[in-house]
Amino acid sequence: MRVTPLAALAAFVAAATALLDASETETSITLTNDRVNASITKPGGRIVVLTLDGVDVLGPKSGNVGCVSIIASLYLARLTMMQMYLDCYCTGPGFWTPGTTAPTFKLFTGTDSTGAKYGGASMSDGYATTGLKLEQYFFLREGETGIHMFSRVAYYNQTSPVNARGLQELRTLFRPNTALWTHLLTNEKQWAPLPSKDAVAKQVTVQDATWFLGNTPNDPYVQQEADWFTKYTFSDTWRDLKAFGMFADGSQSANNATFGAWTVMNVRSCDDQ
To answer: Taking CA atoms, which of 9, 29, 116, 219 is between 20 and 30 Å from 16?
Structure first.
């Protein structure tokens, strides 16, 4: 598979036949080709429906299944899911999720230089007290099973600039809430199964985002990786980062079908893998 990403590509499998539809209603923007269906909520600006070959790869918006942020951290708890979206640590109070204030949306359709049709959407939102503005773009092309994404940041406050605490974090998150995904993977050397529900239930929080899993020594994660879990376990140096994400080994899917969800940065193509 060869893909030329716009910025970051959440790629699933190889390319398919040509079909592309992009549509908009008062509550959502939908991007669809013959294998992928993605729905972006309005307001919110996040992908809340994402299917591949008819299989739901996100899961319900809430519940006690578990969710994964392949950029930042792992959570396994009863949460309300944000699914696939942009957030930042960039305001006085700390974190902010654009799309929750007063977002505006645009729908895009067209044909690229290769002759492939594409559909896209943008979400733009501003943090009123500072003048910070964040935008998130999503694109889907015919014949591909990946979502191209990129983010934009601007700061407009010439009259009364404030200390916005800097842009400490800008994160594009893929946070599914389904048992489909079974493993995390950083590279060919660093990968492991997700901690089981039993391990999570018996974990001891020893520090922010750090768990001790020694109470379940037979858990597959503990056996294969460590009796400690932290979101930083699956980090990597930027220059070595080709593709990372998670995969489903087939144990939780119909007909034992396997899946992969990978982030490929814009400086890479799939020929690098």
So the answer is: 29
For each successive 10 residues of the chain (273 residues), what is the average pLDDT?
A: 35 56 97 96 94 92 45 33 81 86 96 96 92 94 93 83 68 89 92 94 92 97 96 84 91 93 76 51
Alpha helices in 125-236 (DSSP H): 197-201, 220-224
C-alpha count within 13 angstroms, C-beta hemisphere, residue 75: 20
Q: Which of 173, 169, 168 is nearest to 8 (CA)?
A: 173
What pairs with residue 147 in β-bridges? 10
Q: Tell me, what amino acid is at 202?
A: K
Chain mean position to CA 141: 18
Provide the 10 A C-beta neighbour count for residue 92: 12
Identify whether 5 is preceded by a cis peptide bond (ω within 30 of 0): no
The first and second tokens of residue 243, run together, are 């593709």
8-190+236-272 carries CATH number 2.70.98: yes
